[in-house]
Specification:
Number of domains: 2
CATH class of the largest domain: Alpha Beta
Oligomer: single chain
Number of strands: 9
Distance between the termini: 66 Å
Order of helices and strands: HEEEHEHEHEEEEH
Radius of gyration: 24 Å
Number of helices: 5
CATH superfamily of the largest domain: Glutaredoxin
Strand order of the largest sheet: 2-1-5-4-3-8-9
């Protein structure tokens, strides 16, 4: 065997041995080659504590045993936020009594401008069962982290700003686990079925 083929064979053999070593190490450690474990999806659902526009404090513990929806937004939002809240209002109206089977939370990502009074005034335009929540900057960050959601201040002209943020609606089961995302661009019947499913969770505990 010439020198070059022998060298190539040696290299390939070393690669195979290294690969087998990494696989065995991963299996023994119960994780990835770096020692980390991952389900491939972001964690959704965790501790948070905020104040509602009606004055009461709401946290993950007070919601235990009942399914709920979470939507992040802000009152100065020009389109996505009010549109989503109006659509949720419309869906809840169509569902009728079924809509009492879950809570709907609108969490402000703009505590600097969204005071409790501002939220209370804004929520008069939507279903009275939708609860707006706010907190300090730290509490807001904790809520975003709890749902693996995103929010960022985007500067505008003359010192103004807007907010870029996660736009989907989080569906949370009665046991506090993640029940999926509701996309407001989905067909109406799909959204209604998602809400019926999450409302039923209160009864079945599934």
């Amino acid at each position: 065997m010439s020198g070059l083929p022998a060298f190539r064979l040696t290299i390939w053999a070393a690669i195979v041995v290294l690969g087998m070593f990494l696989i065995v190490s991963t299996q023994l450690s119960g994780g990835s080659p770096t020692g980390e474990t991952s389900s491939g999806t972001a964690r959704v659902g965790g501790p948070f504590s905020l104040v509602s526009h009606t004055g009461g404090r709401v946290d993950n513990q007070s919601l235990a045993g009942r399914p709920y929806l979470v939507f992040f937004g802000f009152t100065y939002c020009p389109d996505i936020c009010p549109t989503t809240l109006f659509e949720l209002t419309d869906l809840m109206t169509e569902l009728g009594p079924v809509a009492t089977g879950f809570k709907v939370l609108f969490i402000s990502i703009d505590p600097e401008r969204d005071t409790r009074e501002t939220l209370a005034s804004s929520m008069t335009s939507f279903d009275s069962r939708i609860l707006a929540l706010r907190g300090t900057a730290a509490e807001t960050d904790a809520a975003l982290e709890a749902f693996s959601a995103y929010a960022k201040k985007v500067p505008l002209e003359v010192g103004e700003y807007t907010m870029d943020h996660t736009a989907g609606v989080f569906l949370m089961k009665s046991d506090g686990s993640f029940g999926g995302m509701m996309d407001m661009h989905e067909p109406r019947e799909t959204r209604l079925e998602n809400l019926r499913r999450i409302a039923k969770d209160q009864v079945t505990g599934s």
